[in-house]
Amino acid sequence: MDKLIIQGGARIRGEIRISGSKNSGLPILAATLLASEPMNICNLPHLNDITTMLALLRCMGVGITINEKMCVEVDPTTLTDYEAPYELVKTMRASILVLGPTLAKFGKADVSFPGGCAIGSRPVDIHLRGLEAMGAEIEVDGGYIRARAPNGLKGARFAMDKVSVGATENLLMAAALADGVTILENAAREPEVVDLAECLVAMGAKISGIGSGTIRIEGVKELHGCTYTVMPDRIEIGTYLVAAAATGGSIKLRGTRADILTSVIQKLEEAGAEVEVCENTISLDMKGKRPKAVSLRTAPYPAFPTDMQAQFTAMNAIAEGTGAVTESIFENRLIQVHELNRMGANITLEGNTALITGVEKLKGAPVMASDLRASASLVIAAMVAEGETVVDRIYHIDRGYECIEEKLQQLGVDIRRVPG
Ligand code: EPZ
After folding, report:
1. What is the side-by-side strand order in the sheet with 250-254?
2. What confidence tens digit (pLDDT) does each residue in 85-126 have?
3. Whole-Å CA distances, 209 to 184, 198, 212, 376
């Protein structure tokens, strides 16, 4: 297993380009299954999860080619198989996103039941109940979700009892080809859901209320192909901004959007950062200062994102003062705390809240990545630590950060990858 070796002490300085969003690229690739013509998806990040989704589409018979502009051309008209097999789903839970579109388009889908993961149990009951409300017959058999709708799906009114990004995406895609009108209530408002909805609209779907808690979808008979450019990755943006703030440095990010990061930027300003937003760039300058600890609570968009919680916990670990970080989305997403304490942090856990009292310096240590964002927090901690940190199991980080060591090297960090 590859490892990252990081020498602490560098102050981030420089400019990088932000990649396309993993979490909107994944549902958008799944949405291509709905089209009756080839689609071109641009600005996809080169990440393991995207490769897994492409492998899944390919194993269903979908034609995949990468064109000269590095856009992925997806031809769903050659689909032959309605199954998402265990081998692929077990490596990536987001494979569940093919359930809605496959069922809506072909009347049947067999998708391996995704299990829990390091950050929580992560059930898919809302996805299944929503599809059932649209007339699907669903049974779980041999570890597979077997969904059938031989006469097509029917529009329905469905209120989600919890805000779920994935369920909103699956139901949005299913409803796009259903017969009649679907109203999704208590829908997720995350920018990735909006990006998917905008792609569906570009394919000919009739959707209103995009970005609100109530989405109305009027099913159409067919969706056509289109070229769609995936939005920038707001969590990658946020992670580099926090890295710059934690190290007292300054950074300029290109290919960004600030409107999807309001809560994150607000917390960075509270920590003492000067943030400047231009059309496609965000700049942050910490002017060499140590950050002030901030308190936050994760919640569905537009509130503070769970995917940025671990990075702020790492920044608080060396900040001035004490911050309380509460995780309200996933039951086990403060796992990075134990590794940060091994690096000399002063963090105590009280239920789903981490109480972090900043220390002057962390100390480099061998640490283990346990999930994607927890790994990012360890890399940030390593940059502000004294001496060398070895981060093991970095396959987690490769799922969500394109070229992380190249980008950090460009920003002046002493980081290298060693094959394990
Ligand atoms: C998406 O996961 C993201 N993944 C996650 O990103 C992100 O942390 C999460 O949304 C929350 O923002 C992708 O987009 C691929 P949810 P998703 O359904 O859709 C519960 C990252 O680091 N729930 O919004 O799986 C669930 O257990 C990651 O990039 C049910 O109870 O998350 C959780 O507590 C990891 N039943 C809450 O809802 C369901 O049927 C929110 O989960 C579905 C969800």
Report:
1. 13-17, 250-254, 281-285, 274-277
2. 999 988 899 999 999 999 999 999 999 998 767 888 889 999
3. 10, 11, 5, 34
Residue 198, C-beta contacts closer than 8 angstroms, at least 6 positions apart = 210, 228
Residue 313 Cα to ligand 1 middle (Å):
20
Choosing from 42, 117, 199, 226, which is the catalytic residue?
Answer: 117
Which helix or strand (DSSP H or E) is residue 181 part of?
strand 181-185
- Residue 186 CB less than 6 A away from ligand 1: no
Tokens representing 286 are 């910490």
Place of tokens 């970095």: 394
Of all helices (H) and strands (E), which one includes residue 311? Answer: helix 309-317
Nearest residue to 308 via CA among 355, 268, 348, 367: 268
For the chain, the farthest-separated pair of C-alpha atoms sits apart, in whole angstroms, at 65
Ligand 1 centre and the CA of 278: distance in Å?
A: 31
What does the block give as tokens for 358?
Answer: 């900043």
The reply to whether 226 belongs to the active site is no
What digits encode the pLDDT tens for the residues 362-381? 999 999 988 999 999 999 99
Q: Which of 164, 171, 333, 375 to mutate to test ligand 1, by most ligand atoms within 8 A of the CB atom?
A: 164
Q: How far apart are the first and last CA of the chain?
A: 4
Give 387's pLDDT tier (boundaries 50, 70, 90): very high
Residue 420 structure tokens: 């394990």
Instruction: State the average pLDDT over residues 401-417.
Output: 96
pLDDT tens string 162-216: 999 999 999 999 999 999 999 999 999 999 999 999 999 999 999 999 999 999 9
Tell me how far the alpha carbon of residue 298 lies from the centroid of ligand 1, in angstroms: 13
Give the whole-angstrom CA distance, residue 69 versus residue 82: 30
Side chain identity at 296, as an amino acid letter?
A: L
How far is residue 33's CA from residue 42's CA, in Å, rounded to a whole number?
Answer: 16
Query: Cα-atom radius of gyration of the chain, to the nearest Å?
Result: 21
Q: What is the tens place of the pLDDT at every residue in 284-313?
A: 999 999 999 999 999 999 999 999 999 999
User: For ligand 1, atom 7, which residue shows the shortest CA distance?
Assistant: 307
247 touches ligand 1 (CB under 6 Å)? no
pLDDT bin (cut points 50, 70, 90) of residue 388 is very high
Alpha carbon distance 56, 59 (integer Å): 5
Q: Is the minimum distance from the CB of 114 to ligand 1 under 6 angstroms? A: no
Structure tokens at 234: 């707001």
